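Entry for the shared binder. Reason: the reviewer on the internal report wants the predicted structure included alongside the sequence.
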Amino acid sequence: MNVSTFLPSENWVKAPAQRQSILVAEDDALIRQINLETLAAAGYDVDGAEDGEAAWDLLQMKSYDLLVTDNQMPKVSGVELIRKIRDARMRIPVIMATGYMPAEEFEWHPWVQPFTIMLKPYCHEELRGTVNAVLYANAGQRAVGSLSSIFAPVNQLKHLKPPTASIPLPC
């Protein structure tokens, strides 16, 4: 099962007219740069953080509309970052883009589940489509059909194995 199976086509969800800000937390410099360039080209205001600790610092200084985070990062993991966000009662949707599914942590601590998960490797179109869909859903706008059918619950993704390649690829 691939998360992209649950994503709408890019024609279905368009980027909002208002420029929204996104924080990308990724310890791999190449992946972080590709994600930043992809989202900037899609019209978003983007900032990058090299680990969860740097992302947490940026979240304290600036308000973001969305966080896209890896999980396995030095200093503060993606799950630990989400836990900090929830503990601080910040209302920011989170996309976890990771090669490792922390399903066991989500079972033990369901309040740290992100809005959705993208398993690496993913392509630029999947990143843009997921970001658009999450921002659209978070804005509370009425979509055609049920958005809950677009995203797979974390417990249904447990059987997925981490892929070997992790760089976002063109679709």
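Summary line for the report: The CA atoms of residues 6 and 149 lie 7 Å apart.
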